[in-house]
Amino acid sequence: MNRHMLALVLAMLFCSSLLAFPLPAADAADLASNANIYMYSKPFKIGDLSLLNSRGQRVSLKDYRGRVVLVHFWSISCPACKVEAPLLDWLKKTYGPAGLEILGVNLVDSPASVVNYATKTNCCYPVLCNDGMNNGLQTVRIGGKTTAFLVNDAKEAILEIPGLPTTYIVDCRGEAVAYSVGPATWNHASAQGLIRKLLAESKTCRLDDPNGSQSLGSLW
Predict the structure, then answer these.
(1) Interstrand relation of 69-73 and 166-170 (parallel, antiparallel or unpaired)
(2) Among candidates 173, 171, 169, 216, which has minimal Cα distance to 31?
(3) Residue 36 confidence (pLDDT)
């Protein structure tokens, strides 16, 4: 599937993305209703992801172990991504000094287009692109519904991307603790409370297995 077709599929999936994505835990109702952020009842470790930054250098997710990271999936033509962008910039400027990292991952548009767009919009956090060889999105049908998974070098489906934007909140241990499909209200008090809590925990974070990883499993 080429990039343009993938972009179209993801755009169509956005409206039905909540049906394709795991339901939130019951104790996350307040956070979800206020900020469109859903907590996992049991966090899961993300398999490693290696992509290229705007300088063509390889960046690995495991390099950020010990820090709180938002892994944000977006595309240039995504209207909802444009709505969320100012809030992500605000979040990075507000909590970046305390250690928050945001990685803007674009696997739909060409690397040159991504870098050019990020430069024009003065994006204040790193943008990562597909290297054109290994990491990418793979559309699949599960339970009669079409969704997409992020596939790493090891051909592991490590994260589901049911629509754009999709954002995962990863704690200092490299575990996904929450996610958002569609624009999240990052400046809401509940969202800020979660970020502050994770940042506080990261100061005393213990990495039991800094090199370990766990994914959703290999699909191929």
Answers:
(1) antiparallel
(2) 169
(3) 94
Mean pLDDT, consecutive 10-residue stretches, the chain (220 aa), reads 46 38 42 84 88 89 93 96 97 97 95 93 93 74 86 83 95 95 95 95 75 39
> Distance between CA 192 and CA 198 in Å, rounded?
10
Number of domains comprising the chain? 1
Does 130 fall in a domain? Answer: yes
**Main-chain phi, psi angles of 169, to 5 degrees:** -100, 120
CB 200 within 8 A of CB 192: no
pTM: 0.81
117: part of which helix (H) or strand (E)?
helix 111-120
Domain for residue 22, yes or no? no
Q: Can you give the residue range of the structural domain that contains 83?
A: 3-17+34-202
CATH classification at residue 124: 3.40.30.10
> Nearest to residue 191, comparing CAs of 103, 80, 88?
88
